[in-house]
Amino acid sequence: MFQTVKLIKECCPEAIIASKVYDEKNYKDDIKTIKFSYDWLIAQVGTKIEKSEVIKILEALQFAVKNKGDQFEVLAPSWRATKDISLPEDIVEEVARIYGYDRIPDDLPTIKMSQTKIDLEKQSERIVKQLFAATFGFNEVYNYSWQSEDLLAALKLQTSNCWELKNYLSPEQRYLRTSLLPNLLKNLADNLRWYKKIKIFELGRVYLKEDGKYALDQTGKKQLAYQPKYLSCLIADNNINDVFSYAKGLLAHLAKVLNIDLRFKEIKTHDYLIPGQALAIYAQDELLGHFGVVNLAISSKFDYHSLVGLVEIDFSAMIKYIVDKKSYQPLPKYPVVVKDFSVILSNDVKWQELQEELLRASKYITSIELFDRYHDRQNKEFSIAFHVNIYNPDKTFTTVEIKKITDKLQEIIINKFKLTIKQ
Questions:
Q1: Fold of 30-108
Q2: Percent of the chain with pLDDT over 90
Q3: The FDX-ACB domain covers which part of the protein (predicted)?
Q4: Looking at the chain, which residues constitute the CATH 3.30.56.10 domain(s)?
Q5: Inter-residue contact 318 to 288 (CB < 8 Å)
């Protein structure tokens, strides 16, 4: 400022100096004390620096330093306190810069790691979707979570079992779904006009009138509705045997991939499935769902021109029975004896019952596999053929020992189940 006044007087001698030069400061510096510990500073820098050297570096940069034990209180100079130095990390940068980055070893930091927790439900969901879409050739469907009273009535589902929306926008959005099937059947009806064969599936939540595991509010006295995930699929084809057998084979393959022991039991009567073409799905003693062929009454309501097979299973309940760990089984040391049987099956005998009874005949029977079936329409006979695998881990079977086991199998087939063995 003084130099400016001098230059003005030299250029304009007539200029009059009105007052003295003042340097007035009418504001306060907002300089905050920065606090940190010595151990924290060393951990951030990444190498050991003596406490005395830290103080020396900061004072050389005109920082006001107070040190008491392990604690530091640092005040930055006024010309650096304007958003340049305001955090403890800024002090770390200053110390490291003056100390020398080349003197700091480039070691990787120690990080505490934990094993990734696998979400079994999400993992199983990805496997199922990949299986249905890529392997089985199904089209995945995403429907809204509500359904109309007309769709519920078509399947004889009671509206009293459904949550009703208070502010529904249209009759089609009145009830929350308790099953994926009503909307899937409508999807099928919309598309069967263009295709003769259709395979669609959906994996989504349903909303049941029972308490779930999530609290309604902070009090925890009431729970939200139980919202399990269901897996449902529809297969449209004109061959009833193909539809039913395909659905059963699909479930068998699904059980094999997920490593679940699924069992099937006959359903005598059902609201929307054909008797004799409907089975319940069990895991241990828990009912998981059902599958079968849609009866003609339902087909006529949706104007179907093809036979429709359906599967509905409680996916959330099913994944509880997944055996995640697979055990290793070494190759057999001794020969496995395979015996084939061909049996004429009567209407009142189920293959699963026969298979389970034959497996109990001897501890050396490792597995029984169905490999062929034949329907003689002229004689109205249905025959099956299956392998029986017999293995002793301690020795090779003799002919006499094998005959003893096969005789017992024949006795069960003929005497207990009253079936005929084809020669």
A1: Phenylalanyl-tRNA Synthetase; Chain B, domain 1 (3.30.56)
A2: 52
A3: 332-422
A4: 30-108
A5: yes
